[in-house]
Amino acid sequence: MQKVENTVSCEEELEWISKHSPRTTAGIEKLPDLKGCRIACSVHIDVKLVGFIKALMARGAEVFVIGCNRNTTQDDCVAVLKSAGAEAYAWRDMPEEEYQAGIQKAVEWGPTHLCEMGA
């Protein structure tokens, strides 16, 4: 089976989502003030979660992100999160020992809250 590469960037997908997902946008706008929250997230790092994580940061939270599935992590999405100010320790197909190190780094970062989906 031939692998198909995505030619659309994470930023382009996020722009499309913000224009065509009014319910998601409305939900994000209703998030409370999160200043003082340090949220460690173990999530699927793909375009569907980038907007959510950026919204947490826009509401004042500090965020540390690790991937819950190292085989599906999208590196361009990790780069977008880092450029937005999130701490992130993840890349596609990272070795098991690095994956475990990422979990340890997230714990040592000192989160006040956890967001986990399938670690």
Describe the structure.
This protein has 119 residues and is α/β, with parallel strands linked by helices. It has helices at residues 10-20, 22-29, 47-58, 75-84, 96-108, and strands spanning 38-43, 62-67, 87-88, 113-116. 45% of the residues lie in helices and 15% in strands. It has a 4-stranded parallel sheet with strand order 3-2-1-4, sandwiched between helices. Helix 1 packs across helix 3 and helix 3 (47-58) packs parallel to helix 4.
Observed structural traits:
119 residues; alpha/beta; 4 strands; flat
The fraction of residues in strands falls at 15-25%
Separation, N- and C-terminal Cα atoms: 28 Å
- Low-confidence stretches are none
Radius of gyration: 14 Å
| Principal-axes shape call | flat
Order of helices and strands: HHEHEHEHE
> Could you give the count of β-strands?
4
Main sheet: strands, sense, barrel: 4 strands, parallel
Number of helices: 5
Structural class call reads: alpha/beta
Oligomer: single chain
Mean pLDDT score, rounded? 89
Helix content class? 40-55%
How are the strands of the largest sheet arranged? Answer: 3-2-1-4
